[in-house]
Amino acid sequence: MGLAVGSDAAAVRDADRVYEDLRQRILSLDLIPGSIFDEARIVSELGVSRTPVREAVIRLVSEGLLRRDGRQIRVSSFEVGQLRPFFEANRLLSRSLHRMAAIRRTPAQLEKIRTEMLAFEKSVREGTDVIMNEANYRFHREIARAADSAFLERTYSDILLEAMRLSRQCFEAGDNTVDQLEAHIARIVADHRDLFTAIEQREPDAADNVAARHSDLFKDRVARQLLGPPNTRGTLDLADL
User: Fold this and answer.
1) Over the stretch 136-184, which tens digit does the pLDDT of each residue have?
2) What's the CA gap between 61 and 179, in Å, rounded?
């Protein structure tokens, strides 16, 4: 009986390990959006059976990071046409949850938010963009938990996962001079501090306002990545040709 229990525990660990590995590959864009998920290759690379890989796939499909395409599994892609509804949902959910967290948070939850805020700032000083992305996710996830609204939290978690992939693209392409990137990250740190202060002092209006500003910061960053910096030379008049 002891062997069976030990075997079950090992299987759970394998499934968790495979899930975390695949999740990181998707969020870091190592698995290309839209590409076919090669189960056999993953089994070979990770040295596990197909069972933990399939269990991980089920979890990732439920989170929207993988999707079923007939008999195949594909890495979910983000279409340009989804950007407007995505940013609308992100802004509304962020404002609502941060506002609710300022009203409902407990002292223990506030401490967890503080811990994740400081962890993000440490990642800025010492970590890679992947580590920073994860730390930012955990900070906002703790705030969502403090809002004490399970259905909104679940939906917001999905939004945050998509935001992580978009953020990764912003680090890899687009308008990314060192000065601009450092200024952008400094604004994120400042917004996190302001969000924490508003939640600490139970000021829902302030939390709402900062959350809206923070959402717009992210949206503007993605726009620059997709479209490039604004054209400072003005538009070209066909009459000038």
Assistant:
1) 999 999 999 999 999 999 999 889 988 887 777 666 655 556 778 888 8
2) 38
Cα 55 versus chain centre, distance: 22
Say if residues 103 and 179 touch (Cβ distance below 8 Å). no
| Contact in structure between 28 and 168 (CB atoms under 8 Å) | yes
Please tell me the distance from the alpha carbon of residue 112 to that of residue 140, in angstroms, as a whole number.
Answer: 11
Q: What is the pLDDT of residue 24?
A: 84
Per-residue model confidence as pLDDT tens digits over 1-28:
444 445 556 667 888 899 989 988 887 7
Contact call for residues 162 and 79 (beta carbons, < 8 A): no
Rounded CA separation 62/91 (Å) = 23
The H or E element containing residue 69 is: strand 66-69
Torsion of CA 130, 165, 74, 31, to 10 degrees: -30
- Report CA Rg, the chain: 21
Task: Specify the 3-state DSSP secondary structure of 144.
Answer: helix
In angstroms, rounded to a whole number, what is the distance separating the alpha carbons of residues 84 and 95?
Answer: 17
Mapped onto helix, strand or coil, the DSSP state of residue 68 is strand
Q: Which two tokens stand for residue 42?
A: 């993953």
Nearest alpha-carbon partner for 214 in 182, 230, 190, 178: 190
**Which string of b and e fits 104-142 if b means at least 16 CB within 10 Å?**
ebeeebbebbeebbebbbebbeeeebbebbbbbbbbbbb
* Calpha distance 95→8 (Å, rounded): 42
The residue type found at 77 is S
